[in-house]
Amino acid sequence: MKKTYSKNLFKHALEIIPGGVNSPVRAWKAVGGTPLFIERGKGAVIYDADGNSFIDYVCSWGPLILGHAHPKVIAATEKALHNGTSFGAPTEAGLKLCELLVKQIPSIEKVRLVNSGTEAVMSAIRLARGYTGKNKIIKFEGSYHGHWDPLLVSAGSGLATFSVSSSAGVPHDVIKDTLIAPYNDIEAVKKLFARYGTDIACIIVEPVAGNMGVVLPEKDFLSSLRSITEKYGSLLVFDEVITGFRLGAGGAQALYRIKPDLTCLGKIIGGGMPVGAYGGKAKIMDKVSPVGDVYQAGTLSGNPVSCACGIATIKEILKEGFYRRLDSKAEKLCKELKNIASKNKIKIVINRAGSMFTVFFTHHDEVKNFTDAQSSDTALYARYFNLMLCEGVYIPPSQFEANFISSLHSDAQIRKTLDAAEKSFTKLSKI
């Protein structure tokens, strides 16, 4: 596999971009080597600057549920571009995308478009504080909700306590109202509410965690969060930036039959273009300016090109049998990966939710929270990543990220992926 041009590009990038990348995980610090510079993508395949091709299980970190350069998404994009790239004014495309979101996501009665998942989350939390008149928020250890200051925190000592910033430049005063609990630990949440419940504005949670690797909610975890927030007059905020339209047309909340007060969306709803959205009950959303006194704005919010991509994508995934076929591909792949690893006496745990999954190299029997995820052998994962790359398969360059399957991953490509895994696990077993 040639990588000369990518190496030269990265060397130049290091001179003018911090770390040579515009988002940290792209630097491959967790797996070593020089990151690929991607030139183009088609279907389930990406091509780097040196002309090498790879079956892609990153899918731009989730948005490309239809694969790269889907003909109908490209056609919608081209049509929108010919009409202009931005107006800073209402458009019919923006309205139509909002209509789709309100129709498909069970808890959303009104919705506001923004430009990223981070914007969606920060806006939803500001709204939760403004609506409830309370200050504190609860997030879960290992969950990532964007790079907004109050959420860049990790757990301190003890079961659940005030947090310590996990990024320089975040003052303590900014995070002093952020509380942390382990994912799937409802007792920790109850203890926080028992102590601070009168001033907790909201819980923000990924209904299926995707940023510590894929971690599914245990039975009654989400319903218990719903009950406790109702009891204390707090809001339940679902971060469905990853799971929205990934696990089904109604998101994880439809799958688990839980209605949050607010929902954050992104990724798939833009079809690969920058986008975000937050929405929920009308009485809460009407607290947002210009109707209410919670201010939020954005020059490019509701960008017509992003909206056109999102509409085209959602129309495709709403077709009969789409999710059944997609989940079947993921189920087959994960089942065979487990068999191959077992045959080579390599201990792994695979967590899967629909078409997203993570292969954890761990001796634990299950991964149900961030502590379990952190038990993974990251060095072994790095070897696996590089072995798979050499076989023409591109998986996430971090143990703690999700793999994604698109509708254009063919049976032949899945077979080729399994052949690559067979070779990779065989080599790992000899280390």
List keywords for this structure.
globular; four-stranded mixed sheet; alpha/beta; Aspartate Aminotransferase, domain 1; 15% strand; seven-stranded mixed sheet; 431 residues; 14 helices; Aspartate Aminotransferase, domain 2; 2 domains
Give a verbal description of the structure.
With 431 residues, the protein is α/β, with parallel strands linked by helices. The chain folds into two domains: 4-69 and 320-429, Aspartate Aminotransferase, domain 1 (Alpha-Beta Complex), CATH 3.90.1150; 71-317, Aspartate Aminotransferase, domain 2 (3-Layer(aba) Sandwich), CATH 3.40.640.10. The protein is 38% helix and 15% strand. It is built from 14 helices and 16 strands. A hairpin with a 2-residue loop joins strand 13 and strand 14 (356-360). Helix 3 runs parallel beside helix 10 and helix 13 packs across helix 14.
Q: What is the topology, as strand order, of the major beta sheet?
A: 4-12-11-10-9-5-8
CATH topology of the largest domain: Aspartate Aminotransferase, domain 2
Query: How would a textbook summarize the main sheet?
Result: 7 strands, mixed
Indicate the structural class.
alpha/beta
In total, the number of strands is 16
Just give the CATH class of the largest domain.
Answer: Alpha Beta
Overall morphology? globular
Poorly predicted sequence stretches spanning 5 or more consecutive residues: 155-163
SS strand fraction: 15-25%
Contiguous helical run count: 14
Q: Architecture of the largest domain, CATH level 2? A: 3-Layer(aba) Sandwich
CATH homologous group name of the largest domain: Type I PLP-dependent aspartate aminotransferase-like (Major domain)
- Cα(first) to Cα(last) distance is 22 Å
